[in-house]
Amino acid sequence: MNNPVIIVGAGLSGLRAASLLTKQGINCRVLEARDRIGGRVLSTSVPNRPDLGSFDLGPTWFWPQYESYMDNIVKELNLETFDQYKEGEILIERFQIKPPERCLLKENSDEKWVRLTGGVQSLIDALAETIPSEIVELETQVKKIQQNETGEVTVEAELADGKRERIPASSIILALPPRLVAQHIEFSPSLPPSLMADIENKPTWMAGQAKVVAVYDRPFWRESGLSGYVLSGVGPLEEIYDASPNKGSGALFGFFGMPAEARKKMGQDKTLQLVVDQLVKLYGNEAKNVKSIFYKDWSSDSETAVEEDFNPLKNYESYGQPPVEGVWDKKIIFAGTETNAQFSGHLEGALRSAEQAVLDINRYS
């Protein structure tokens, strides 16, 4: 295999594929449009206060009893984990003008929600260390993928300085949301209509969502017997969880019930003020003492979302491997959490899709 395998996307699936190929001695290059690795994995910390911990603005948990690939890679990379805090009562917010109700949530006590110390970014960083740094090329946006009459494939990418580079490829792993492939990459010859229809209709996980994390000096809600878990029919946050690190500060994170268009129209400042008001209503005046607040609206991230993703996620049945056939069969391979039917939307799905892509590379070569 003279030409490299080109991996488009340096999220979890792209980096895992690169790590596996590197381990097998297969030449590869990872092209990433963003100026960072990780894709929809994004962990952050308070500037000048790393002691407060790291907070996830993308995926947060995994479930080791069900998700063997995640469990195995965490062990393989010697990453530290801790259990999601769930002790105490939950709050249910049904009405704007009434206080929330406290109740005990009955659940399977054997089910573990596990988090990574240092956030999910620690997994991304550990994976990156298993591959040569020079094979990951940031701010490199794939614009066109071309195949000639003899079956040779070339990738055309735009670099940060606006220049274009043409890269010959043995095959290509498309490790990015399928809708981005459909809208941002030109194929010559064109992709078959059945394949285009499939990837255009495959919703991007988390693309219409926003996530907010409010950081406090300690998890004060635990002192009054609360778990931090909230279900709200009022909003703006419809689900809230304890996001506190295993040591350091306290934190709460929430998912919005407010649609993407409504968030955009209201603006970030007003949206975050509504969030703080809701936390104060739920947890009292101590919730005003926010040390820092982080907000990531994935719908406004052009490397994640397209306009079709702004609507609430409903079309779950479309997840799974796109049907590549014709001249592009064995030339392009889709990876990413949307392409794994069983664990779509999870870190597990991203990992399984990467391992399947590498199996396909080996089978086709």
UniProtKB/TrEMBL annotation:
Domain Amine oxidase stretches: 113-360
Entry's Gene Ontology molecular function annotations: oxidoreductase activity
Alphabetical list of Pfam families matching this protein: Amino_oxidase, NAD_binding_8
InterPro entries: Amino_oxidase, FAD/NAD-bd_sf, Flavin_MAO
Family affiliation: Belongs to the flavin monoamine oxidase family.
The name this protein goes by in its record: NAD(P)-binding protein
